[in-house]
């Protein structure tokens, strides 16, 4: 098997057999990684476009593989999703995030953390209990946790997903819809969900600068979110021009390389101490 080949390729690939072997190997490694210290979180600031304040951070998973180096989440999360492993993985991520949340609280610098979930988590009847157990174990208030749920994950089984989200929201956990805009969630469905935040899919945010059609999508999603009383977030913001545009559209929060990259907790602490707002 050639070293350095990309993994997690979508679509037909004549080397699919090789990929299958690679995937199996990677999956075995991932199981091991869960019990070692190979998985860690980086945190990306979500910044208010109104006052430049750091409102919260999104936790993003990183895997430092002993031989392959840094494996991107897009290469191993789908793998975990297609097997039973995603339950353990999300639990592990929540455990790391809530330990960090606790550490920030103890340091007198509390910060809200957003954690990504997968479709499978939303079909797990125990998931709300798992989350509650971890909050209790770490002594973290539910309001300090926000769960990001992708629009596509919701669409997979809207009724079941809604029931689970309602149980989570009833505990005081905030729910955000991630990657919004590419799916076909109706306004009616949106209104029936216990959500507080809408994140515009970053593909639109990035295409916005070259294409007026994409810009219209971004504007429409922001307007929809505002009309529903939700906090609107634009992610993947890479230029100052895009920031200005988004603010003029009434977008509440921005996230992207132009503001800050995802950072380890110590780097984030340093960044926070230097951050003077927009
Ligand atoms: P996502 O949830 O949509 O996360 C946003 C992705 O955009 C992250 O990629 C982030 O590093 C990247 N990003 C942030 N700002 C910019 C920017 O200005 N420009 C560009 N081009 N990209 C930007 P990352 O960390 O590689 O994660 C990719 C995806 O993997 C995430 O997309 C999410 O779907 C998944 N993921 C990451 N961590 C977790 C996790 O702990 N659990 C689950 N279930 N999924 C995760
Ligand atoms: Ca996300
Ligand atoms: Ca996203
Ligand atoms: Ca995504």
TrEMBL record:
Spell out the protein name for this chain: Uncharacterized protein
Report where the shown chain sits in the full-length sequence: first residue, last residue, total length: 500 to 777 of 783
| Annotated EAL domain residues | 23-276
Superkingdom in the source lineage: Bacteria
């Amino acid at each position: 098997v050639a070293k350095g080949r990309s993994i997690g390729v979508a679509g037909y690939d004549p080397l699919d057999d090789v990929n299958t072997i690679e995937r199996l190997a990677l999956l075995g490694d991932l199981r091991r990684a869960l019990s070692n210290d190979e998985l860690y979180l980086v945190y990306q600031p979500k910044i208010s476009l109104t006052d430049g304040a750091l409102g919260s951070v999104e936790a993003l998973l990183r895997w430092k593989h002993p031989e392959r180096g840094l494996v991107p989440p897009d290469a191993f999360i789908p793998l975990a999703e297609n097997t039973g492993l995603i339950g353990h993985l999300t639990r592990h991520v929540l455990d790391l995030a809530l330990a960090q949340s606790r550490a920030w609280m103890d340091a007198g610098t509390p910060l809200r953390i957003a954690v990504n979930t997968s479709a499978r988590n939303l079909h797990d009847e125990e998931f709300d209990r798992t989350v509650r157990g971890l909050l209790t174990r770490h002594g973290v208030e539910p309001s300090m946790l926000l769960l990001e749920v992708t629009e596509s994950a919701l669409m997979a089984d809207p009724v079941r997903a809604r029931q689970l989200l309602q149980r989570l929201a009833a505990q005081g956990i905030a729910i955000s819809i991630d990657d919004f805009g590419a799916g076909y969630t109706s306004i009616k469905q949106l209104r029936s969900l216990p959500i507080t935040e809408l994140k515009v899919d970053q593909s639109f945010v990035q295409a916005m600068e070259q294409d007026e059609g994409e810009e219209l999508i971004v504007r429409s999603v922001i307007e929809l979110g505002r009309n529903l009383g939700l906090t609107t977030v634009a992610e993947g913001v890479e230029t100052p021009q895009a920031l200005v545009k988004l603010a003029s559209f009434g977008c509440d929060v921005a996230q992207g390389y132009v503001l800050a990259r995802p950072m380890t907790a110590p780097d984030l602490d340093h960044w926070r101490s230097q951050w003077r707002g927009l």
